[in-house]
Q: What sequence folds into this?
C-alpha cells in the first residue's frame, strides 16, 4: 500500500503544520473503501438482489399541473405477473425534508405538480412486466394552468400549487437590512447595479437512485437505499408509514455520487417500503435516468439584482441584493436555499451594510433543492463578476481589490456570522503567483483572457434541520481483544471519503493504520445518529466526534498500560500499533496487548463521541441561524480561456486554484474533491442546464424537461477538462479535527465567475449569466460591434412586494444580533419552524 | 433499468436469407448491425420491431477491399476498424475523420458503417423515453399527429445525424442495396430523402450490402464536426469537403456536403461549381462558405441555438477548405475536437 | 404502446455459453436481455454498473473479445461463444491488477461507480497500446463519464499503471 506518495506535480501544499508527528493524518494513502470499488465488490443499492424479490415501477404524471379525478388500476392489477398496484390513497401522509414544508406525498393524492410527479406504482415479478402494466392504469386528469418560471408565478397567484407559503405561488420571502444601506450608498463614490441569471442544473450522479426494502424476519422494515441522509429518511418513513422509528432500519448503501441529489427523503424510497410491508417480500426499484431528472432537487435557477456602493479605495459601503428563485413544484430544502442566496455575501469581503431580500416561487417543474454549494454559487457568481466590474471602474487590479476588502480571521460579519480561520488573503496571493496573473491580466492577445474569482463556504451547517438539542454527529467505537477496532457511524459514504477520514482520525489517535479500523457507516441500527452527508459537515462534525470517542478509548488504554509498565500515563505514546514510553521506547506493549489490559481493567472497551456545533449566540434575529457554521473555507481561482471571436466558441485552457482547507487529512482525497468541484463548476459555467420546454399553448399544455438524458444534459468528458493546478493553503483551524475544514464544495464556487471574468478579459464582453455558451458570447460580440453595451444577460428584475425588512444593526454599529423591529414574541429564535438548514 | 421490449430474434448466415426474412416480414422486421442506434431506440419504444435480424453471422458484409482505383466496403465494418485503418487515413481522410468522431470509442467498437449510413433521424421531441413522449402527446414521427418543431409542417423535420454519410458523399460513394428479387447500385446521395420519417429511399425489404468508392486519385478530403463536447455528442453541424486541385492549386473538381442541418445530408452543388477553376484563396473560400451556409436551415430540435448553428456553418466550410488548401488547421481542430485526432494511430 | 406479446419475459428461454473472465459458463436468460442484464441479474456479476442503459455514460463498459464495449447495447443473444472480461476478472489470486492498484493509490476512484468501466477501458487500451500518450489516454477514456474526479486523477492512475505493468511484465509476474 502506498502510504506517503507525493501529490502529482500539478498540486502542492503551501504550508504544513510543523512540529507535529502525525503518522496517518496528512499523508496520502489508499482510502479504506477503495478496494471494493476497484474490484467491483462494493455493493450499491441496485446490486442487492434477494430471494423472491419483486420489482417496482412508477407511473408518473404526463401533465405539468392537473387534478387527479380518478384512477382505475383494475386492468394493471389483473395483468399477469403483477402483484400489487399502489396509489396516493395508500400513502396519504405528507412529508418533506424541512419541518416547514411537509408538502409531498409518496404518490400524488389529488394533484400533480410537474411532469414526472408519481401517481401510481406497480409491483411485479419482472421489471419489464411492471413497466408494461403502467400503461394499463387509467387516470383521469383535469388540466390546470401551468407556471413555467418565477415571473409567471408572481403574476399567477391562482391556482396555487400549494395552500401554504407566503401568498399565491410565492413559497418563501425573506427581507433583512443590516445597517442603513441608503446611508451607505450616499457615502459611496461609485454605485453599480447589475443583473445576473444563474441557470438551474442537476447533480447527475452516475448512480441512478435505487432502493430495496424488506419486511425482515422480525416483521420489521429494512431499507437499503442510495441516500445521503439516512437519519432524515428514517424520520420520514416513521411518519408516513406510521411505524415506530425503532422498527425501521435504514441502510444507506455507498452512494454512486450524491452531490445533494440524494439528500431529501424521496418518494420511491417510501413506496418500496410500503410495498414490501404489504407483500411480505423484498421489493426493488431502480430509477431510470429520466426519473432521476424528475427527482432532481438540484440547483435553483436564480435571477439576481446586485446594487453595490464602493469608495474609491474599494471599501464596500453597502450592498443591496435581491434574488428571485425558481423553486419547482415542492418545498424540498427551498426555504433554506432561499436564505442561502444571500447569507454568505458578507463572509468573503467586508461589507459594511447589507440589505438582502429573497423570494422563492413555486413552478410546475421538478423541485429544486441542494446541489454542491447549496444556494450560494448563484449569488457568488453575481458578486464575483460584480467585483470584476468594480475593479475596472475603480482602476484597481481585481486581485488587489479583493485583498483590500477580504474579511479577517474571527470577524463577526454584518449579518452576525462568526468566522473562524480565514486563509483568503493567502489564497489570493498564491493563485496570483501560480497563474502568472500579473503578466496576463489585460495583457494577453485578443481572444485569450484570464479571470479571477474567490469564494467562501460553510464547514457544516450550524443548525440541524429540525430543532433539537441533541448532537449533530455521534461515533461509537468498540475495541476488541484481538486489537481490532470497530467504528460505527451514521455517516454516509457518497464518494467523498468519509469512511476514510473517520478511520484515519481514530487510527492516528490510537497509533494504528487505517486498515486496522473497520468502519460501519450509514446504518441507522448500527451507528449513532449523524445528520447526513450534506453541507460539508461530516469531516468536521463526525470527525470531531471520532476524536472524542478515540481519545476516550485511548485514555482507558493508557491508564491500564501505565499501570502495567509502571510509567506515568502522560509519557505514553500510541504509534506503530503499539503503546510505549516516550522516555524509554523499549518499554512497550503491542496494541492488542494494550486492549487486553484495558479490558481486564475496565471491562469491554466501548466508547462514544458526540459533536455539537459551538453555540452561535451572535445571530439572534429570526432566520439568523442560516449561514452559521463552526468555520468557513476560502478559495481563489484563476481561469484562462480562449474565445473565438468569429464563432463565440469558448475553451477553458487552464485553471489555477487555491483552497484554504485547514488541513488536508488525506491529500489525495482532498485533491480529488477540489478537482471534482472544479469539474462540476466548469460544467455549470459552460454547458449544464436543467431546461424546460413549453409547447405552443394553443395546441398543448405540455411543459416538459427539455431533454432528461445523460446524453443531452451535457456533462464534460475527459476531453473537455482543462489543465488544473491546485494548492492547498493549510493552516489548521482549532475547530476542526486535526485542524481540518471543508473541501468538497467550496472549490466549485469561484469557477463560474472566474470563467465569466476571463471571457471579458479575452474579448471584452460580459456574460452575466451561466452557462456561458458560444451563442451568448457571439450575441454579446454583436452588441459590442454595434456599439451597444457589450453584454449578454438578464435585462430586468420584476417588482416584488417585499415584507418589511428585519432591521439588524451590524456589530460595528452597536448591534447585538437582534432585529430592532422584531416584536419580542417573534424574536423567540429556533422554534421548529425556523430551524432550517442546508446541504 | 431501461428494458428492451420483446422481439423475435433471427440470426441468418447469408444475405439471401436476410433478404428472404425481410421479404416475408416487411417493415415488421429490422436489421440489427451494431445495435447502437436501434437498441436505444427500442428501449425508448421509438422503434418496436417484431423481428430483429442480426447481421452478426451473415457472410461477406465485413471487410474492406481497396484497389488503386476504387474501394469496396462492407456495411458491417466497424467505425473503429475504419478509424484505425491507415489506408483510409491517407486515401479518404474525410471518412476516417468522420468515423473517428462518432459517439465514443466504445460505441465505435461495435457501431457499423452500414448502421451509421442508415441511422435513424434525430429530434429533441423524438429521441425521448416513452413516458416523455406521452407527456407531449407524441409527435408525427411516432404515435402522434403533430410535428412539434414546425407545427404547420406536413412532414417531419428530424435531423440526419450521421457523421460518415456527408463524408462518403463528398468522396463520391455509391451503395448497393439487395432485396430478394433484385440488387441495385445508387449514389449514396440518392439514398436519402429530405423527410425525417421516410429518410431513406431504401425499400423495407432491402438490405445495404456494400459501399463503393470510385477512384480518389488526386483528391483531398476533410471532415469537420460541430458538437458541444469532445465526445459522445451527435453532430449538430458538419462539413465534409473534397477537392481535386491542379498543380497550380486551382480547383478542378469539388464536393461540399453539409451534415446535421436537414433531414438528409445536403450537397452544396452551387458552392462546388463556384470553386471550379478558382484557386482556394480567401475570396473564393469565403464565397463558397456563404453559398454553402445558405443551404443550412437548422431547426430548434438539436443541441445549440439554431440561428447560431446557421451562423457558424460558413466558418466551418472555411476551416475545411483552408485545410484542403494546405493551411495548418491544428489549432482550430484542437479548439473544436479538444484533441488532435491522430491519436487513433496505433 | 404497440407491443405484441412474444415469449413471456420471465421465461429463461435463451441459452448461451460465454467465456466469462476466462471461465466457460452457460447461462439461461429471458431473450430480451442485454449483456449488462445477464451479467448483473443472471450471472451475479454486479461489478458492472449502469448509469443510463442507452449508451450515453460508459458505466457498463466491459471487454468483449478484446475491445471495450457498452454492455447495455449488446444483446446477450449475440454473445454466444464470445469472451467477456468484467471487473471481477482483473485481480488474480487475490492480487489487484496494476491498473486497479493505481486507481486505488492515486484517487482514481471516489464514489466508485464509474470505476469498473474506467478500469476495463484503460485495460483494453493498455493491452493494445502499452505506452499510450497522454492524449491517447484522454481519448480512450472519453466514453466514460465520471462526475466525481474531474478525470485528472484517473489519468494519473492510468499513467502510473503503465510503468507498473511494464515492470511486472519484466519480472514475469504479469503475462
Ligand atoms: C450516445 C450515442 C452517441 C452517438 N453519437 C453518434 C455520432 O456522434 N455520430 C453518429 O453518426 N452516430 C452516433 N450515434 C449513433 C450510432 O451509434 C451510430 O450511428 C452507429 O454507426 C450506428 O451503427 P450500428 O451498427 O450500431 O447501427 P444499428 O443500430 O445496428 O442500426 C441502425 C439502423 O440502420 C439499420 N441498418 C443497419 N445495418 C443495415 C444494413 N446493412 N442494411 C440496412 N439497414 C441497416 C438498422 O435496421 C437500424 O435502423 C450515437 C449513438 C449513441 C448511443
Ligand atoms: S421533426 Fe417533428 S415530427 Fe419529426 S421527430 Fe421532431 S417533432 Fe416529431
Ligand atoms: S449504462 Fe450508460 S452506457 Fe451503458
Ligand atoms: S468516481 Fe464517482 S463517478 Fe467516477
A:
Amino acid at each position: 500500500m502506498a502510504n506517503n506518495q507525493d501529490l502529482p506535480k500539478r498540486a502542492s501544499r503551501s504550508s504544513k503544520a510543523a512540529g507535529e508527528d502525525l503518522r496517518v493524518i496528512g499523508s496520502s494513502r489508499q482510502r479504506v473503501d477503495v478496494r471494493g470499488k476497484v474490484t467491483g465488490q462494493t455493493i450499491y443499492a441496485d446490486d442487492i438482489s434477494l430471494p423472491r424479490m419483486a420489482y417496482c415501477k412508477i407511473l408518473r404524471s404526463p401533465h405539468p399541473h392537473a387534478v387527479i379525478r380518478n384512477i382505475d388500476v383494475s386492468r394493471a392489477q389483473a395483468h399477469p405477473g403483477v402483484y400489487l398496484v399502489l396509489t396516493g390513497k395508500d400513502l396519504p401522509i405528507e412529508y418533506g425534508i424541512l419541518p416547514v414544508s411537509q408538502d409531498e406525498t409518496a404518490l400524488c393524492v389529488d394533484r400533480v405538480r410537474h411532469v414526472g410527479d408519481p401517481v401510481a406504482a406497480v409491483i411485479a415479478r419482472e421489471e419489464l412486466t411492471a413497466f408494461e402494466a403502467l400503461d394499463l392504469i387509467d387516470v383521469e386528469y383535469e388540466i390546470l394552468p401551468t407556471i413555467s418560471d418565477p415571473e409567471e408565478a408572481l403574476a399567477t397567484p391562482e391556482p396555487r400549487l400549494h395552500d401554504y407559503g407566503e401568498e399565491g405561488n410565492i413559497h418563501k420571502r425573506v427581507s433583512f437590512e443590516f445597517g442603513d444601506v441608503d446611508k451607505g450608498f450616499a457615502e459611496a463614490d461609485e454605485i453599480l447595479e447589475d443583473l445576473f441569471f444563474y441557470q438551474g442544473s442537476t447533480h447527475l450522479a452516475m448512480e441512478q437512485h435505487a432502493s430495496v426494502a424488506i419486511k425482515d424476519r422480525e416483521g420489521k422494515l429494512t431499507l437499503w437505499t442510495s441516500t445521503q441522509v439516512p437519519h432524515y429518511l428514517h424520520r420520514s418513513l416513521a411518519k408516513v408509514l406510521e411505524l415506530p422509528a425503532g422498527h425501521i432500519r435504514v441502510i444507506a448503501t455507498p452512494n454512486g455520487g450524491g452531490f445533494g441529489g440524494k439528500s431529501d427523503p424521496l418518494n420511491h424510497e417510501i413506496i418500496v417500503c410500503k410495498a414490501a410491508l404489504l407483500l411480505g417480500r423484498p421489493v426493488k426499484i431502480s430509477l431510470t435516468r429520466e426519473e432521476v431528472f424528475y427527482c432532481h432537487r438540484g440547483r435553483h435557477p436564480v435571477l439576481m439584482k446586485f446594487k453595490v456602493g464602493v469608495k474609491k479605495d474599494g471599501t464596500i459601503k453597502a450592498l443591496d441584493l435581491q434574488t428571485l428563485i425558481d423553486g419547482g413544484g415542492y418545498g424540498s430544502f427551498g426555504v433554506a436555499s432561499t436564505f442561502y442566496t444571500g447569507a454568505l455575501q458578507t463572509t468573503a469581503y467586508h461589507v459594511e451594510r447589507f440589505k438582502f431580500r429573497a423570494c422563492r416561487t413555486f413552478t410546475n417543474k421538478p423541485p429544486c433543492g441542494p446541489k454542491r454549494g447549496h444556494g450560494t454559487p448563484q449569488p457568488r457568481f453575481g458578486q464575483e463578476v460584480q467585483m470584476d466590474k468594480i475593479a475596472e471602474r475603480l482602476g484597481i487590479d481585481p486581485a488587489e481589490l479583493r485583498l483590500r476588502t477580504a474579511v479577517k480571521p474571527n470577524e463577526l460579519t454584518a449579518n452576525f456570522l462568526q468566522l473562524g480561520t480565514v486563509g483568503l488573503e493567502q489564497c489570493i496571493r498564491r493563485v496570483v503567483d501560480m497563474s502568472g496573473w500579473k503578466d496576463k491580466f489585460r495583457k494577453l492577445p485578443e481572444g485569450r483572457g484570464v479571470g479571477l474569482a474567490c469564494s467562501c463556504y460553510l464547514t457544516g451547517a450550524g443548525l440541524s434541520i429540525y430543532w433539537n438539542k441533541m448532537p449533530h454527529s455521534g461515533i461509537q467505537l468498540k475495541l476488541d481483544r484481538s486489537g481490532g477496532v470497530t467504528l460505527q457511524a451514521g455517516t454516509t459514504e457518497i464518494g467523498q471519503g468519509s469512511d476514510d477520514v473517520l478511520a484515519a482520525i481514530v487510527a492516528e489517535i490510537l497509533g494504528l493504520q487505517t486498515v486496522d479500523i473497520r468502519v460501519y457507516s450509514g446504518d441507522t441500527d448500527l451507528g449513532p445518529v449523524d445528520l447526513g452527508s450534506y453541507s460539508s459537515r461530516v469531516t468536521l462534525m463526525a470527525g470531531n466526534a471520532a476524536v472524542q470517542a478515540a481519545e476516550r478509548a485511548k485514555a482507558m488504554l493508557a491508564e491500564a498500560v501505565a499501570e502495567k509498565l509502571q510509567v506515568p500515563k502522560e509519557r505514553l505514546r500510541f504509534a506503530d500499533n503499539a503503546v510505549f514510553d516516550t522516555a524509554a521506547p523499549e518499554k512497550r506493549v503491542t496494541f492488542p496487548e494494550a486492549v487486553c489490559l484495558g479490558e481486564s481493567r475496565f471491562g469491554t472497551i466501548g466508547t462514544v463521541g458526540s459533536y455539537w456545533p459551538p453555540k452561535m449566540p451572535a445571530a439572534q434575529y429570526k432566520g439568523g441561524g442560516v449561514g452559521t457554521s463552526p468555520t468557513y473555507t476560502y478559495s481563489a481561482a484563476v481561469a484562462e480561456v480562449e474565445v473565438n471571436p468569429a464563432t463565440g466558441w469558448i475553451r477553458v485552457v487552464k485553471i489555477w486554484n487555491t483552497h484554504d482547507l485547514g488541513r488536508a487529512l488525506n491529500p489525495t482525497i482532498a485533491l480529488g474533491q477540489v478537482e471534482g468541484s472544479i469539474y462540476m463548476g466548469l460544467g455549470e459555467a459552460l454547458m449544464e442546464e436543467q431546461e424546460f420546454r413549453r409547447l405552443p399553448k394553443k395546441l398543448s399544455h405540455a411543459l416538459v424537461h427539455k431533454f432528461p438524458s445523460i446524453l443531452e444534459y451535457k456533462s464534460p468528458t475527459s476531453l473537455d477538462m482543462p489543465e488544473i493546478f491546485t494548492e492547498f493553503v493549510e493552516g489548521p483551524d482549532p475547530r476542526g479535527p486535526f485542524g481540518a475544514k471543508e473541501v468538497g464544495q467550496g472549490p466549485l464556487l469561484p469557477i463560474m465567475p472566474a470563467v465569466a471574468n476571463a471571457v471579458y478579459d479575452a474579448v471584452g464582453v460580459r456574460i452575466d449569466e451561466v452557462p456561458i455558451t458560444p451563442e451568448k458570447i457571439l450575441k454579446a460580440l454583436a452588441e459590442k460591434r454595434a456599439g451597444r453595451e457589450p453584454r449578454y444577460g438578464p435585462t430586468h428584475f420584476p417588482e416584488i412586494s417585499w415584507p418589511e425588512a428585519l432591521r439588524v444593526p451590524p456589530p460595528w454599529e452597536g448591534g447585538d444580533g437582534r432585529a430592532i423591529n422584531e416584536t419580542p414574541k417573534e424574536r423567540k429564535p429556533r422554534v421548529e419552524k425556523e430551524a432550517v438548514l442546508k446541504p | 433499468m431501461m428494458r428492451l421490449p420483446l422481439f423475435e430474434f433471427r440470426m441468418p448466415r447469408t444475405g439471401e436469407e436476410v433478404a428472404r426474412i425481410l421479404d416475408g416480414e416487411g417493415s415488421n422486421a429490422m436489421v440489427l448491425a451494431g445495435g447502437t442506434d436501434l437498441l436505444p431506440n427500442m428501449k425508448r419504444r421509438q422503434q418496436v420491431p417484431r423481428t430483429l435480424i442480426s447481421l452478426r453471422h451473415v457472410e461477406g458484409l465485413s471487410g474492406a477491399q481497396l484497389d488503386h482505383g476504387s474501394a469496396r466496403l462492407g456495411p458491417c465494418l466497424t467505425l473503429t476498424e475504419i478509424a484505425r485503418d491507415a489506408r483510409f487515413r491517407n486515401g479518404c481522410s474525410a471518412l476516417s475523420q468522420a468515423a473517428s468522431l462518432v459517439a465514443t470509442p466504445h460505441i465505435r467498437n461495435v457501431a457499423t458503417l452500414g448502421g451509421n449510413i442508415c441511422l435513424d433521424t434525430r429530434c429533441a421531441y423524438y429521441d425521448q423515453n416513452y413516458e416523455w413522449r406521452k407527456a407531449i402527446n407524441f409527435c408525427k414521427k411516432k404515435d402522434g399527429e403533430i410535428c412539434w418543431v414546425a407545427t404547420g409542417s406536413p412532414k417531419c423535420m428530424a435531423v440526419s445525424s450521421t457523421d460518415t454519410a456527408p463524408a462518403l458523399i463528398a468522396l463520391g460513394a455509391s451503395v448497393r442495396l439487395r432485396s430478394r428479387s433484385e440488387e441495385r447500385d445508387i449514389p449514396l446521395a440518392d439514398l436519402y430523402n429530405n423527410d425525417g420519417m421516410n429518410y431513406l429511399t431504401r425499400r423495407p425489404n432491402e438490405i445495404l450490402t456494400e459501399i463503393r468508392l470510385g477512384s480518389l486519385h488526386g483528391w483531398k478530403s476533410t471532415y469537420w464536426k460541430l458538437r458541444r463536447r469532445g465526445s459522445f455528442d451527435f453532430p449538430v453541424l458538419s462539413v465534409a469537403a473534397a477537392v481535386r486541385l491542379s498543380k497550380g492549386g486551382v480547383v478542378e473538381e469539388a464536393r461540399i456536403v453539409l451534415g446535421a442541418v436537414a433531414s438528409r445530408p445536403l450537397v452544396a452543388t452551387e458552392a462546388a461549381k463556384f470553386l471550379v477553376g478558382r484557386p482556394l484563396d480567401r475570396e473564393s473560400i469565403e464565397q463558397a462558405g456563404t453559398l454553402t451556409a445558405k443551404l443550412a436551415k437548422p431547426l430548434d430540435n438539436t443541441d445549440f441555438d439554431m440561428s447560431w448553428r446557421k451562423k457558424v456553418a460558413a466558418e466551418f466550410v472555411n476551416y475545411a477548405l483552408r485545410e484542403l488548401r494546405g493551411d495548418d488547421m491544428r489549432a482550430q481542430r484542437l479548439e473544436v475536437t479538444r484533441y488532435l485526432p491522430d491519436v487513433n494511430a496505433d | 404502446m404497440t407491443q405484441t406479446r412474444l415469449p413471456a419475459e420471465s421465461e429463461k428461454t435463451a441459452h448461451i455459453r460465454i467465456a466469462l473472465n476466462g471461465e466457460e459458463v452457460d447461462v439461461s436468460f429471458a431473450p430480451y436481455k442485454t449483456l449488462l442484464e445477464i451479467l448483473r441479474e443472471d450471472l451475479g456479476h454486479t461489478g458492472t454498473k449502469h448509469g443510463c442503459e442507452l449508451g450515453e455514460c460508459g458505466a457498463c463498459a466491459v471487454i468483449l473479445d478484446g475491445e471495450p464495449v457498452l454492455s447495455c447495447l449488446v444483446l446477450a443473444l449475440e454473445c454466444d461463444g464470445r469472451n467477456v472480461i468484467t471487473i471481477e476478472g482483473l485481480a488474480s489470486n487475490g492480487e489487484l491488477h496494476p491498473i486497479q492498484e493505481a486507481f486505488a493509490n492515486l484517487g482514481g476512484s471516489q464514489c466508485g461507480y464509474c470505476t469498473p468501466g474506467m478500469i476495463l477501458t484503460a485495460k483494453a487500451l493498455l493491452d493494445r497500446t502499452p505506452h499510450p500518450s497522454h492524449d491517447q489516454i484522454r481519448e480512450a477514456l472519453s466514453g466514460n463519464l465520471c462526475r466525481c474526479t474531474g478525470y485528472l486523477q484517473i489519468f494519473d492512475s492510468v499513467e502510473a499503471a503503465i510503468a507498473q505493468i511494464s515492470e511486472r511484465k519484466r519480472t514475469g509476474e504479469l503475462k
In short: The mean pLDDT of chain B is 95.
